[in-house]
Structure formats: C-alpha cells, structure tokens
Predict the 3D structure of the following.
Amino acid sequence: MPGRKHLRTARWLFPLYMVVIALPPLPLFARAGHAQLDTPAGRTFGSVRAGSATGQ
C-alpha cells in the first residue's frame, strides 16, 4: 500500500514533534517551581551552605 511508508514515518516523527513543541516552556515551569518551593534558582536541593543549620 502506498500509505504504509507515511504511517511508519509518522510513528516516530509525531512523538518527536510533540517533544520539540513541549521544550520551550520548560524553563518557565522550572522557574515557577522554584518560586513555589521558595528556593533560589541557582541553588539545588542537595547543596547546603555553611552556617545554614545554625541559623547564621
């Protein structure tokens, strides 16, 4: 059938298209998540500053 080749291409191209479309808003979501968790954007959850446990 002539349409089979198009369907095979669409099976991998459409999911790739959806991923590419979803990439641009990711930095906005990350920044909103940091704001909601009240953490600075440059700090990761595993890092601890010296003196932060003693309240200094």
The chain has a mean pLDDT of 77.
